[in-house]
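Subgroup meeting minutes
Present: P.N., E.W., G.H.
Scribe: E.W.

1. P.N. recapped why we're keeping a running log of single-chain structure predictions: easier to compare across weeks, and new members can see raw inputs and outputs side by side.
2. G.H. added today's entry (162 aa).
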Amino acid sequence: MSNSFTTEPLEEDEVAFLTRRYEAESRQYMRVMNVFLVLCATVPFIVALVYYIVTADVQVLIKVYFIGLGFLLVFFSVAAWLTYRFRLQKLRLDMKHKLKTIEKTTIASTRFVPHSHTWHFYIHSLTKYSIEVSEADFHLFGPGDEINIEYAAYSREYFGYF
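Output recorded in log:
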């Protein structure tokens, strides 16, 4: 069973959604990077200060501080790059190219979740495992039926089904 994929331009509301998502993710990214920057300076200083108290040697304080600073800068730089590369860059590419993927897939099973009072389709998709659906669609469709799901081409941000 293979799914078929088509690519279409994003609608205006989908572009607006991705823009809001990108701005929110960017703000969160910058907050985390600011915390990382503060940690890069303070943690090595505290560790170096403890070494200085134990050894009473200024040379040890300086070495421990700069080794810790260098290690944390490299570590947090790699973390920052990976976070940008695998999340923010994909949202930026979606906004630049303005494309969405429509995937035709089949419903594997249907489930009602009484705890949250929601209806779900479990689907045969490479992108999504399950989707939340309306009660009317839950009763209209069943296992084996085909539905189309829409998501952003690069970030795989889910837009909906039809």
